[in-house]
């Protein structure tokens, strides 16, 4: 057997780990082993971008949850937008890693946030239209000066 594969949650990023059978000199650096927490120099720029997206999603979701829990933020459209962004980032990252339970959970999280935002927008529209109806301009003069100018102006004749 030449080498065994390191199968973990980051299977796409793992490299073969040498075994004592494959290494000509035990303890030599014949092939580097994948270690947890160390950056993998073989990552493509796109994989690195997806990794950053995952961490940004984690920061967004935890930050939003903490802000609502501490009372710094109301559970409104800002909170739902942060959840929407965070779930999208986790979907991208989870797909890259093949973490399907995480992907399914975050698709549900995304849908919940999207529906909540749509409902908030739908409630906001009738309130806006009612306020616009009340604030519609009248056809009469707005100020006393306009009343005086209108009354002093002679009627135009078409003779």
Can you characterise this structure?
With 159 residues, this protein is mainly alpha-helical. The protein has a domain of 80 residues. It is 57% helix and 3% strand. It starts with a strand and ends in a 7-residue tail after the last helix.
**What percentage of amino acids are in beta strands?**
under 5%
The largest pleated sheet is described as: 2 strands, antiparallel
* Class inferred from helices and paired strands: mainly alpha
Helix content: 55-70%
Q: Helices and strands, in N-to-C order?
A: EEHHHH
| Radius of gyration from the alpha-carbon trace, in angstroms | 32 Å
| Beginning-to-end CA distance, first to last residue | 111 Å
Enumerate how many helices there are, as a single number: 4
According to DSSP, the number of beta strands is 2
Write down the overall geometry: elongated
Strand order of the largest sheet: 1-2
Short description:
The chain has 159 residues and is mostly helical.
Key descriptive features of the protein:
159 residues; mainly alpha; two-stranded antiparallel ribbon; 4 helices; 2 strands; disordered N terminus
Q: What topology emerges from the helices and strands here?
A:
Elements: E1 3-4, E2 17-18, H1 45-69, H2 77-97, H3 100-134, H4 144-152
Antiparallel strand pairs: 1-2
Helix pairs in contact: 1-2, 2-3
């Amino acid at each position: 057997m030449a080498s065994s594969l390191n199968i973990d949650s980051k299977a796409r990023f793992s490299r073969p780990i040498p075994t004592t059978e494959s290494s000509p000199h035990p303890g030599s650096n014949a092939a580097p082993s994948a270690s947890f927490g160390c950056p993998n120099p073989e990552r493509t720029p796109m994989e690195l971008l997806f990794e950053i997206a995952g961490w940004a999603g984690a920061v967004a979701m935890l930050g939003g949850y903490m802000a609502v829990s501490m009372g710094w933020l109301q559970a409104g459209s800002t909170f739902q937008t942060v959840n929407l962004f965070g779930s999208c980032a986790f979907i991208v990252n989870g797909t890259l890693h093949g973490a399907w339970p995480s992907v399914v959970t975050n698709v549900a999280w995304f849908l919940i946030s999207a529906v909540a935002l749509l409902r908030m927008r739908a409630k906001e529209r009738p309130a806006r239209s009612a306020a616009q109806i009340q604030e519609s301009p009248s056809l009469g003069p707005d100020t006393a000066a306009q009343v005086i100018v209108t009354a002093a102006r002679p009627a135009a004749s078409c003779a």
